[in-house]
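Try it yourself: sequence plus zinc ion, in.
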Amino acid sequence: MKTATIGYPRVGTLRELKFASEKYFEGVLSKAELQDTAVLLRKTHWQMHINNGIDFIPSNDFSFYDNMLDTAVLLNVVPKRYSSLQLDPLEEYFAMARGYQGLNGDVKALVMKKWFNTNYHYIVPEIEDDTEISLVGTKPFDEFLEAKKMGIVSKPVIIGAFTFLKLARFTGNKTAIDFTKDIIVAYSEMLKKFNDLGAEWIQFDEPALIMDLTADDIALLKKIYGEILLAKDSTKLLLQSYFGDLRDCYQEVTTLPFDGIGLDFIEGNHSLELVKHFGFPADKTLFAGVVNGKNIWRNNYSQTLLILNELKKTRATIVLNTSCSLLHVPYTIKNEGFLTDEFKKHFAFAEEKMGELADLKKITASNTPAEITEYIKNTRLFQESRFCTDVSVQAAVSSLTPEDFVRHPAFHKREKIQKAVYNLPLLPTTTIGSFPQTAEVKAKRSVFKNGKITAKHYIKFNKEKIAECVALQEKIGLDVLVHGEFERNDMVEYFGECLNGFLFTQKAWVQSYGTRCVKPPIIWGDISRSQAMTVDYIVYAQSLTKKYMKGMLTGPVTILNWSFPREDISLQECALQIALAIRQEVLELEANGIKIIQIDEAALREKLPLRKSDWHCEYLDWAITAFRLVHSGVKAETQIHTHMCYSEFSDIIKDIDEMDADVITFEASRSDLVIIDVLNRCGFKTAVGPGVYDIHSPRIPGTEEIKEAILKMLKKIPREKLWVNPDCGLKTRGNAETIPSLQNLVDAAQEVRRSL
Ligand code: GLN
Ligand code: ZN
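Structure, out:
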């Protein structure tokens, strides 16, 4: 069996592309120097593939910012507001990616969106009514030739026409169907051109095919490929799917004359069943996604062989492949100096995954796979204990009963009790938790982490910051205060570091968008809490004020969704373990006199399945339950808040109400408050604080503007249920804009309050 990867990370093992791009943006690096960095990275990545004997080496998986944006530029999909700036091509590209403010004009960036169920974000192409889709770019051809110079006949990777049209935004009256003719011509030309350049294979990525498809979608798919495939000459065409299975279009796809079809056997729960049930054409190549492109655990070879043995029955040619692009995992475990081999041997990052493909190639070539050294080593690895089990944690999870997920008394009774106890004014004002993390705060944390100052010194510093923050909030006149989160670098990492069961990496960066990378912790074992994590700071903060101080925690679903999860237990089990640990913290805060506790679920939507029919059974049923477990043990008068970082939850609004929090704050200011109607229509019971201003921008909102937002909300939301707050934490902002913004917020709330 041959081997392939779908795509490779591009930011560089030491984030070279990030730093080079940022320097270029600052004007410190020239365009030629930036291009040199890119050339070097591509070369290194190709060489890596050669070293691992990969047969199908991708090209055009590189990008200066995003592959969807690359495809838009390739196809002449450049909105007029950017083309009219008359910038050079690279500048225009970055103008679309990041916005542009300069001599030639002032435009915002294109919208960015989550790439399927990953934490990568793509740029949403905008198609205007007079956009003329045509093949105008040369990037894929240039990179193909660049690889060819190294002696590699690469497999160019292009986002497919169907996915491109499905993800693009149509700004006028036209829709996808109006552009199919042109896009077919463009992709057909692309095929011809690659044919002339001597490409053996070309890969069209069509992840959109794993979504719920309508009859119209399927008709569109058939139309597009029915015609593009007519242009095929000797270059073979691979239709690559990932992030799920093709259950809505398997038969259509396998009937079309593609030369190869890429299926995902990791996230595609139905992939194997589809192949078994409908068969797979023996004259096509099956690119079998058996090495996980998203998680970092080693592949279990004996299990993979079981899948491959099934696939062999189709008599199709099989290529060993990753389940999706390796973009979603870090580069290499080799860079991790802190982790010992005992841990490291369980992980495979991008480079090690190529090694796994090579191992599998060797193993499958043998008549006696069980005798191959790599196979034996792998089997042993999965047989040995990882020493990650905590029987008491497992027992606690398995002894949970339905009652543990129900908070008493019911919402409406609590609401009355709390109204009486708290005596908060109408439209209470608050913030989401963090206050600006100034250079001083970050520097202190860094010297503490490097062992240059003692814990005592560090704690004292944080307490000083808390005291300043409390005084500031009192001066501004906020009603419910926060401690400011100065001790936290990140809302997940902080808790991960306090809990048992997590591992941390040093250089395991994964691209989130553009030049931004994240470094998710790894969930290694059963999770437990051996000591209080926030109680000291919160109790201290409360001691400084007569106003209510909110305890501030991160919820189990968010902690799980922003980490690399285990594969040996279910996500549900893991979420419940975290929930039990956070629950202990909630109860300890309560026991120490903290009356209001916020449990953030910023990333609740992150792992929502891509198909609606899976939403509940595969995710929401346990995710919402895990959250309920965290707070079901508190007294009636303890007020539980939660916070979510997005505004699109109209489709899961009932589930969010079912979380049974007392108050929820969320982002809304950028989405024109549309969510307010949804809340109104569904009779949302939880009190709400839709953000009245956008903290993602340095702009200071005026009092009038905030008043207007509050008045607009009051038209749809009962006044007893409305809170007034910004739309997210303030940690990325500076004090210069934060203080006047919050003052305007409080003034606006007070003015509206007086008028009621
Ligand atoms: N409490 C966190 C903060 O204020 C919430 C962050 C978030 O929603 N991403 O920073
Ligand atoms: Zn948020």
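One thing you can check immediately is this: The pocket of glutamine (ligand 1) is lined by residues 432-434, 485, 491, 552, 600, 602, 643, 645, 728-729, 731 (CB under 6 Å).
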